[in-house]
Amino acid sequence: MQSEVMLTTYQDVIAASHRIKGHAHKTPVMTSKTLNDDFGAEVFFKCENFQRMGAFKFRGAFNALSKFDERQRKSGVVAFSSGNHAQAVALSAKLLGIPATIVMPHDAPEVKVEATKGYGGNVVIYNRYTEDREKIGSELANQHGMTLIPPYDHPDVIAGQGTAAKELFEEVGELDFLFVPLGGGGLLAGSALATRALSPGCTLFGVEPEAGNDGQRSFRSGSIVHIETPKTIADGAQTQHLGRYTFPIIQREVDDILTASDDQLIERMSFAASRMKIVIEPTGCLGFAAAKENKNQLRSKKVGILVSGGNIDLKRFCNLVETGLV
Ligand SMILES: *Cc1c(COP(=O)(O)O)cnc(C)c1O
User: Fold this and answer.
1) Phi/psi zone of residue 290: left (φ > 0), alpha (ψ -120 to 50 degrees), beta?
2) What is the pLDDT of residue 3?
3) Residue 281 in contact with ligand 1 by CB distance below 6 A
């Protein structure tokens, strides 16, 4: 399997960083004195909740779409996504003048569906628990000659996602630890390429929801484990398996995969809002939650936490933080 696919390299991440320049934001790196005191460490947050459309996914989508040839641009792009990839493809397509069709689950957060429509995307709804989104997406692609851009398992998507960690290392220098949220692994694989190039000694952890630890099981067993759609508040990481492009990179470059519970995510969302004045969506807190859980190991170290996104509607945010209810 590994020999059949051309794996993304750090050179691709560099090329992506040139393509997205002037289109994606160079997001801020934030620190918190309170948090540094709590951890007894120096902690740097790479805040992709401040990225365009509110998550790192703009990086990968814009990189992939800007490589389209004339025919692909005319026929358009199709994407299937629980939300952030949808918005990322819709916005990138709009900026590049490419028609976009987005296949979204019936229970996607309203704010994400509306934002996708707002960017001019043509939204097609499917049932997350009974229908196969990959099949729907590829049928649309075949029937209309559209190019399917998957949310994580694509070399250009991985390369784009890697630009966030690249910026982090370029800004703060080498790190002892880096914690990265994990769904299908586009962000983690890209971050791994940047990490091994710019901070080779850094211990790199991917962090996924406890309810769906397929990534951890895949990493530890050496082959891709498939699971049912996990029930978790981390809607950006409700993936069923790692990808054939993401897994080999993760397997080769990442130190381990950790998990975080919904309660831990809520607790960190609350901390980030009240102490750092930033809104982070549940999935965006995965890295932060695992770092908190392992803080004794981080004492006196230089630690990076990738905050992957901030798209959550305010009512849901308040409900989660106040009562812990989904
Ligand atoms: C998509 C997403 C993730 C997971 O990214 P993968 O590349 O699928 O691993 C994490 N956080 C947020 C906010 C996301 O939108």
Assistant:
1) alpha
2) 53
3) yes
